[in-house]
Amino acid sequence: MSEEINKPEEMNTNTSAESKWYVVHTYSGYENKVKANIEKTVENRGMQHLIHEVSVPLQDVVEIKDGQKKTVQRKVFPGYVLLKMIMTDETWYIVRNTRGVTSFVGPGSKPVPLTDAEVYAMGIGGEVENLNVELGDSVRIASGPFANSVGVIQEINTNKRTVVVSLSIFGRETPVELDFAQIDKI
After folding, report:
1. DSSP letters for the chain
2. Residue 135 has what pLDDT?
């Protein structure tokens, strides 16, 4: 029984458990190396049934600078790698001891899985909505403090499910970040 006390509660040895998303903190700039190392270890040890996906979320951000549209790819969470896995002693050990990993996100050594709401908000693990608007389109704000205002789309971030809309507030053009559900195409 004393062996069980030292194990984090989330860990189990039941491989039929449902996989969940976990977050690991990495050294700055090591996200892609950590991802590659974990994927290689999973392949070498035949652990595809336990560690299903390793992700460094990137976002395509479309910016308008000097009248030119430019697509820039950025890390959504610098210094973090997301893993969809079944937490066992073995998977915990392999991930935790991967070069570049500093820790799992959670109190102490106890990894805490992301909630369904957090996974949805991050735009991972599911379908990303396809918005029927483009840069420069005029949209009406459907809800929120700017309801019924009209603005022009400056940026679209499909991973976060947001857009940046330029609104005229007190006679000045002001960029406002809004959720996809808050806008209607005109």
Report:
1. -HHHHHS-TT----TTSPPEEEEEEE-TT-HHHHHHHHHHHHHHHT-TTTEEEEE--EEEEEEEETTEEEEEEEESSTTEEEEEE---HHHHHHHHTSTTEEEESSSTT---PPPHHHHHHHT-SSPPP--S--TT-EEEE-SSTTTT-EEEEEEEETTTTEEEEEEEETTEEEEEEEEGGGEEE-
2. 86
